[in-house]
Amino acid sequence: MTNRFRTASGGRIDRAAPLSFRFDGQTFSGFKGDTLASALIANGVHLVGRSFKYHRPRGFLSAGSDEPNALVNVARDAARAAPNLRATQVELYEGLKAQSQNRWPSLSFDAGAVNDLAAPFLPAGFYYKTFMWPAGAWKRFYEPKIRAMAGLGVAPDLPDPDRYTQNHAHCDVLVVGAGPAGLAAALAAAESGAKVILCDEQAELGGSLLSETTATIEGKPAADWLAATLATLTARDNVTLMPRTTAFGYFPHNHIALAERVTEHLAAPGPDLPRERLWEVRAKEVVIAAGALERPLVFPDNDRPGVLLADSARTYANRYGTKVGERAVIFTACDAGYRAALDLKAAGVSIAAIADLRAEVSGELPSRALAAGIDVRPSTVLVGTKGRLRVASAQLAKVTKGAVGPAETIACDSVLMSGGFTPSVHLFSQSRGKLVWDGAAGAYLPGTSVERERSAGACRGVNGLQRVLEDGYAQGEAAALAARTYTSPARGATPAPAAPSRSIPASAEDLGTDGFIGATPHGRNPAFTKAFVDWQNDVTAKDLKLATREGMRSIEHVKRYTTTGMATDQGKTSNMNALGIVSEALDTPVPKIGLTTFRPPFTPTTFGLFAGAARGDVFDPVRKTAIHDWAAEHGAAFEDVGNWKRAHYFPRAGEDMHAAVARECKAVRASVGMFDASTLGKIEVVGPDAAEFMNRMYTNAWAKLEPGRLRYGVMLREDGFVMDDGVVGRMAADRFHVTTTTGGAPRVLAHMEDYLQTEWPDLDVWLTSTTEQWSVIAVQGPKAREVIAPLIEGIDLSKEAFPHMSVREGTILGVPTRLFSVSFTGELGFEINVPSAYGRAVWEAVYAAGERFGITPYGTETMHVLRAEKGYIIVGQETDGTATPDDVNLGWAVGKAKKDFVGKRSLLRESMSAPDRRQLVGLKTTDPKIVLEEGAQIVADPAAPVPVPMLGFVTSSYHSAVLGRSIALAMVKGGRARIGTKLMVPMPTHAIEVEVVEPVFYDPKGERLNG
Amino acid sequence: MLIITCPWCGARPEVEFRYGGEAHIARPADPSALTDAEWADFLYNRTNPKGLHAERWRHIHGCGRYFNALRDTVSDFFVTTYKAGEKRPDIDASSGGSK
Fold first, then answer.
1. Is the pLDDT of residue A495 over 80?
2. I want to staple A248 with a disulfide (CB 3.0 to 4.6 A). Which of A546, A602, B22, B41 is the partner?
């Protein structure tokens, strides 16, 4: 297709580089330098989407990142599809494929458009009023249907094959926005010697200068000045220029997040390049030069394709050599409409009329329009537009003393509107700076700063090209100066606006400060008009007025009730008009209505950018023991315990978990099993005061524990509740080998460090985490001693020389070991600690030595069953942070004679020894085949009136193959006094009868421990 | 993300640190001498001020040390940091964020 709507010449597109692309399956052509939007407009295409709620046909509203309508899906393939991209920001490349969204079956005939006729039934807040019955239908029926109808694009359901990187950068001055103010700021800061980063969301740096055809700066055409300035900045090695880079988030202490789109504009991205880069910048000083956004006017049917912002139409003409139509009507409240009219006329667009909301029309631009023969009509409003898929006419009416006169229809194929400019204060607001209402400017402007930043140019209400350039230069210089004296991120006083220190003479049309906020009068029956405020969320002036009638007063409430400003464009084009309408409806001045908060991201940001490399296997670190690979080779099923992968059980062919665990349990009880306990936390506590330190940290008494002996230690928090437990070996008078639970290791070390560093810095103790230094091989069962005996040297393993709960140092296969005689199964047992590098070799040697006894590797599930048969608790399973040692039958481990230890004082509180506290007991189901649900509640009488008093809950429950029945541990109120009684465990369909028993099911006298 | 100045290592990003609660709450030398109410006060009651707050941080992914900081809870800027065991600097809230 030909580019019928191209200007004869001009623009920044490369007319020697034609590109072909597809939109909704149809092939079009454009030029290098086009956006998808400018190329479509050049081909006469304005219908590009359907609206969110009413499915009304929509075209382009703007030419930049504020675009609310023209959201498209751009897909290189099924996995590389990006929905909801603003066509105004999508750079054209050869072969680009884009699709419109939210329409079915097609863009020009959309079945969902019936919503437009049903609009009376879809008022503001309809979500809250309709769809409420029957109960539950919202989740099951209405919500999915509404979401399907009112949708934006659809995300691809394949994994993203692209790469995203995350980088950090530091600079003296970060300048956000490369328009005239930003360029001047970067230039000034760079000349002062500061290290500068200048970023801009667009492909080309220059901002509004890219749309200037007649302006001059320092005697040169704006385009030439821009090229020279960029060349100067590029040549400086203290400046980094970042086009296609959006500063999307301003976080505390001048931490600014930038999204750099690296390959989105390339026809064939190289495999070496990431798709996007996240830059986390720490800047000593920030200059925000974000410019201003043109405001639409709110009048009936202002959303037809072909209705655009006036300055955007000017950008399409001047920058992209594209005419938005052949005949335009302009509706304006400021001189921007005239500037656009003149430039479009020069580009070959005929201007049917300029309707000016203002009564007084004077000044340079209006005079030039009149001189050019344009039909200028003061005190005139647009009261409507007509046309099915594209605007075909506009209705103009004179306003006399507030009354709207009869309408005159003027044929046109485009309507350009301008309500003035809104300073872009998003980043300033994100930085927690206070905005202040400036009545003269009719805008919110940056007030008190919180961070070390300053705004420059149009985003702080400065207008006029020369003033903007000089303000940018002054702010850039001031920022560089402030960066030189930087000591901390804290901002002192709000910086006074710097005075221009250099003149940058420029000539350009002066637009003044006129503008309009709110809805323009139309004199029509409001029931039958839709004057859009928020294009993306389909919010009309009527909706906002309805919200105020229904009692909303704060803009925060109006926003949530109507969803105005809540779409992906965050109300860039709609917020101020919404404020104006609410202000008028409530007869309250704008600053009294309040202002909604701007939040990151400035424009939508991909998940890929945030995820970066943290996907799949590297999403979260995986911890594996030295014995992991052996277990994997032997068919282990693994479970996650914290970040650790632990062997859960070792199924043989045909076995499920239940069968494997039953076999493993029996093997340990009957002969011998081996278990990888390497994940146990380990801390080496060393120093002259080590025993004193242990005395204070644990409930137990350590002073009299002889070197070579082990003790089971209980650690409390200061509030008296069990925090951790573990076996501790005294290696020497001044050295303890402390073990902790697998999950508790970092917590315990931090807890110890806290007390050692801040409460008892006088104690001479050193703490070292040794969790990963030791592999721990537990050999458990009656044959355990016989298995390891041939491998051990230097340790007398006899019962007399090496009793239960001892530790000896020797060697196993020549590898130094700390050998523990310890059991977490109730059987004779040893734990072989060897340096991790030898873990697998020693494991394999023990396995080989045990083969003649049928040694059985077992996993965490069997470990859990065996310890439950013995009533050994697991901290975090039996305890929940509210259990005292006595509650879990560990009162014996509390050193009563000790004057103090962490948690002791809390144990003395009366309630900590109340007889009705939940206490650890065993449960036996009357039917031995029933295995209780862990977490199930326990009651005395399930038929008791609601609320049924809860007595406790099941903490551990297993089938015990060795005992041939189910067993359970539970925490039950006054449990020890209930031993021998029956209680009930209610389930959804029936209640299960249980008997309360002692929590030791197997070998209650502990005779097997000694082999 | 905040920038926190470890008195041992210098300015580092917040991710290297762990918050440690209010500072200058010494564990009583003889807890058994305290009434239940006094002990509960030590355990649970904190000042939670609007303004300058003396608080503990640990440079857990750095030197591992606990240290103290004065932070303005309104602005979230640190006024100063100092080593554990040192006295709280005599800075009043009005100068919060000025350093």
1. no
2. A602
B96 within a domain of the structure (yes/no): no
In angstroms, the CA A545 to CA A517 distance is: 15
Span A872-903, pLDDT tens digits? 999 999 999 999 999 999 999 999 899 999 99
How far is B72 from B81, CA to CA, in rounded Å?
Answer: 12
**Contact criterion met (CB below 8 Å) for A680 and A741:** yes
A168: nearest CA partner in chain B? B13
At A126, the pLDDT band (50, 70, 90 cuts) reads low
Percent pLDDT > 90 in chain B is 87
Kindly report the average pLDDT of chain A as a whole number. 94
pLDDT digit string, tens, across residues A737-779: 999 999 999 999 999 999 999 999 999 999 999 999 999 999 9
SS3 A992: strand
Please provide residue A459's backbone torsions phi and psi, each rounded to the nearest 5 degrees: -75, -10
Residue B83 sits in a domain whose CATH number is 3.30.2270.10
Residues in A whose CB is inside 8 Å of some CB of B read 251-253, 255, 282, 450, 487-492, 718-719, 750, 753-755, 757-759, 761, 899-900, 904-906, 908-910
Say if residues A396 and A407 touch (Cβ distance below 8 Å).
yes
> Do the chains contact at B84 and A761, CB–CB below 8 Å?
yes
> Does the pLDDT value for residue A870 go beyond 60?
yes
Using an 8 Å Cβ cutoff, are A332 and A380 in contact? Answer: no
* CA distances, A489 to each of A251, A452, B97 (Å): 12, 7, 9
B21, burial (CB in 10 Å: exposed 0-12, middle 13-18, buried 19+):
exposed
Instruction: Find, among A402, A375, A192, A181, the residue nearest to A292 by Cα.
Output: A181
pLDDT reported for residue A111: 77
Summarised one tens digit per residue, pLDDT across range A807-835 is 999 999 999 999 999 999 999 999 999 99
Q: Is residue B52 part of a domain?
A: yes
Q: Quote the domain boundaries for residue B70.
A: 3-27+37-91
pLDDT-based confidence at residue A527 (cuts at 50, 70, 90): confident
The domain total for chain B is: 1
- What phi, psi does A556 have (nearest 5°)? -65, -35
Query: Does residue B98 form part of some domain?
Result: no
- The string of DSSP letters for A361-404 reads --SHHHHHHHHTT--EETTEEEEEEE-SSS--EEEEEEEETTEE
For residue A104, the model assigns a pLDDT of: 75
Give the tens place of pLDDT for each residue, B5-49: 999 999 999 999 999 999 999 999 999 999 999 999 999 999 999
**Most distant CA pair in chain A: distance in Å?**
116
CB spacing of B99 vs A757 below 8 angstroms: no
In a domain, B43, yes or no: yes
Contact A282 B84 (CB under 8 A): no
Structure confidence at residue A116 (pLDDT): 80
C-alpha distances (whole Å) from A795 to each of A675, A792, A799 are: 22, 7, 12
Are the C-beta atoms of residues A241 and A205 closer than 8 Å to each other? yes
